[in-house]
Write a structure and sequence with these properties.
17 strands, 38% helix, alpha/beta, Rossmann fold, Arc Repressor Mutant, subunit A
Length: 479
């Protein structure tokens, strides 16, 4: 269908005497293969594998019974959709009733608990919420990542295996090259599981894919050789989906900030040796039914109520990035008690991340700047970078000592303006406005805690002497 603007509308845009040619023949459907999707706001379909027969689509249209088809016509999108022949995840067999959402929640939680031993009991509700949220990807603007971090043989791979059996289109992509992920993730929208993340440490492609697909509407670009015309051309991929990562080394800071982090350790209780495939299949079937019910009866994240809810969560949790991560999880909570538990977990997660950020090199540099000023090393509103370097190195081992060039780079990252002082030595220029701004940044709260204690209003009482010569050591005593 072609929409034609009226003559008045065209004149409003300064366009006159325009002749429009309209074809009478209807637009033909485009035939594609995929794993499922939505039909506007009134329908959804998903690839299933019945116990008897080949893969097909389970289709649910609002207020109509479930049906199973080999081919689906979507007229308003001019699409003919056919099932994928093969997919790298285990399919549901058919949607099944699940009683109440709370009952289904407890079933999924118990299944995870039976297979995975985690140090924090609250982790199981977080993982259960993540599983539920993955079945309603279309509702979210942010798809939070999971990161299982620990030494060898601490259950990281097992966590990925179980979650991949429970999540929507859970693809455990083992030892896959980054270049092989772009098109499948864009076309299939799987929940992607990447094990042994350390093997991707020097692969910028995988980091770009993960960093660039955390938020809806972002695109990851790649260069590919154009065999016909020569040279290279740029391709853009929309790889938005839920993802979970496991590894023995920390991720890049930019990626780790997009993750809910679980630190794993050796199991302290008996867990299932093999994954219970039958139980996981039953839960996938029930979660598929929950997906249809959720997408066809509830609003999206972009509604006014959702925005107000997100703002309220920022006030409760105190960290906007953590709210982004936990918003989908909190939204699927089946009752107020679990919702409160997830909010408290988000608060604790935000606190842990801030404490870790306080140990960052930027925080160390800021502490050294504040300490150098307290020692009276600032002259005419300037601090020597060499003095800042010496101050920072006092708390570092010899192997970790900074060079002045490195300190200079950190000062620039903090926002300080650099200049040349006496004898051409590099300095930073003190700025009260910048210091006030950094003071309000929660990442640097601990830096100022050590330097904010007010000076005593009267001389303090000397402490108990620790050596017999304490009187001689007093600077205010003269011989």
């Amino acid at each position: 269908m072609i929409k034609i603007h009226s003559h008045a509308t065209l004149e409003q845009h300064g366009i006159k005497n325009l002749m429009l040619m309209v074809k009478d023949t209807p637009e033909e459907n485009t035939a594609i293969r995929n794993a499922g999707g939505t039909i506007g706001a009134f329908g959804a379909y998903e690839l299933v594998k019945p116990s008897i027969g080949k893969s097909c689509f389970a289709v649910k249209i609002k207020d109509k019974p479930m049906r199973y088809v080999k081919e689906l016509e979507i007229p308003n999108q001019h699409l003919t959709v056919r099932p994928l022949d093969r997919v790298p995840w285990t399919l549901p067999t058919e949607p099944q009733p699940y009683g109440t959402v709370e009952e289904l929640w407890n079933e999924v939680k118990d299944c995870i608990h039976a297979h995975v031993d985690l140090p924090e009991p609250e982790s199981y509700d977080v993982l259960t919420a993540w599983v539920f949220a993955s079945w309603a990807l279309e509702k979210w603007q942010i798809a939070p990542y999971l990161f299982f971090f620990g030494t060898f043989a601490t259950g990281k791979t097992r966590a990925l295996e179980v979650l991949s059996r429970l999540c929507q289109r859970g693809w455990l992509a083992l030892y896959i090259s980054p270049a092989s992920l772009y098109r499948p993730v864009e076309n299939w929208r799987p929940t992607l599981f990447l094990d042994e993340a350390e093997i991707y440490g020097d692969k910028h492609e995988i980091l770009g894919l993960l960093n660039g697909s955390y938020r809806r509407g972002q695109f990851v670009c790649r260069q590919r050789e154009n065999a016909d015309e020569g040279g290279y051309e740029t391709e853009f991929f929309d790889c938005f989906s839920f993802k979970a990562i496991a590894g023995t080394k920390e991720l890049a800071k930019t990626l780790q900030s997009r993750c809910i982090i679980f630190r794993t350790s050796h199991a302290t209780r008996k867990i299932k040796f093999f994954v219970d495939e039958q139980r996981c299949t039953e839960l996938r079937n029930k979660l598929l039914q929950w997906r249809f019910n959720t997408l066809l009866t509830e609003g999206s994240e972009g509604t006014e109520d959702a925005r107000e809810r997100a703002e309220h969560l920022v006030e409760l949790i105190g960290n906007q990035r953590e709210v982004e991560l936990f918003y989908p999880l909190i939204s699927v909570a089946p009752n107020k008690e679990i919702e409160k538990e997830l909010i408290n977990y988000a608060k604790a997660s935000a606190t842990r991340k801030l404490e870790e950020l306080s140990l960052s090199t930027e925080a160390t540099a800021l502490s050294a700047i504040l300490q150098a000023k307290e020692r009276g090393l600032m002259k005419n509103g300037k601090l020597l970078i060499s003095d800042i370097t010496l101050t920072a190195n006092e708390n570092l081992s010899f192997e970790e000592h900074w060079k002045e060039r490195y300190t200079s780079s950190l000062c620039s990252r903090l926002g300080f303006q650099k200049s040349r002082g006496a004898q051409g030595k590099a300095v930073i220029i003190w700025s009260e406005a910048l210091i006030e701004r950094l003071h309000k940044d929660l990442r640097y709260a601990l830096c100022f805690t050590q330097h904010d204690s007010p000076a005593p209003s009267e001389p303090s009482v000397p402490s108990v002497p620790t050596s017999p010569n304490w009187l001689k050591d007093r600077k205010d005593v003269t011989e």
